[in-house]
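Researcher: Structure prediction, please.
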Amino acid sequence: MKPLRIAVAAALVVALAFALVGCGNKDVAATVNGEKISNEELQTQLDQVKKRFPQFFQGADAAQREIEFKQRLLDELINRELIAQASSDRGIKITDSDVQKQIDTIKKGFKDQAAFDAALKNAGIDPTQLNEQIKTQLVTQKLVEQLSKDVAKPTQAEIKAYYDTHKSEFGQTAAKRASHILVKDKAQAEKLLKEIQGGADFSKLAKANSIDTVSAQKGGDLDWPTTPYVPEFQAALDKLKVGQLSAVVKTQFGYHVIKVTDSRAAKQQALSEVSNTISQKVVEQKRADLYQKLLDDLRKKAKIEIFVKDLATKVNTGSKTATGTK
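Model: Predicted structure follows.
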């Protein structure tokens, strides 16, 4: 996720711990076929997101948004447990070695162990939580691969049909590609700007200092924009040419040093230019459809009990559902 573009996707949900009643164990938020999801898990997810995106918990409607986010989070945790159970039934196993290999790959995007540890701390994730998250990702990946092993490569007719009905996706807008370094302290941002102006490597400083951990791994690169940046960032970006640096820019996220690395003109991409991209999109959609169908089937067959006040009637629990609330 790029923190400058405010979007809440399936990979980003938040929760708030409310009183749990009626189940005889206040630490249980829900059970899925007898397996427990703890209130502590909900709170851990909340703490991580609150630390990274405090602006989501501000304003007059913050309390209602917290309930809605909590609902999404519990729904995702139920999905995760259902997928874990299905994967186990199918003989899918992830070893500690598999997890460590993935962690080692992630670490390569950081300057050193200290920078990696700092990124985890900024995200509110400890090593144990990281291991669990990666294990869940790998399990899901293997399950999807197993489900979609017989998915055929799209035909030219399918590719053209997709292009004809999604032309707006391939209308390339005029844009500037930027990199940035984001820090919380203005003095630090000004110091970094002077270092870059003096010849220091922007990419290395971004990896070592930026609290935007996603772009930091790529030397601060934000890729081509797909949605508008926050106004202060966009205004600064509009004034820059390729290769130029901004002054220190303050936004709701902190203090930025921005560099424009590329620019492009508006144009409509031809089918021949995007054929490979469309092929991948079609395959990914087929894989996603198979995964969603499995998840829907698991939901229908599962026994899911909700013990979180106010959520028992909101979380999608499938057909075999009981409630521990009163």
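Model: Residues 1-24 have pLDDT under 50 and may be disordered.
Researcher: Thanks, that helps.
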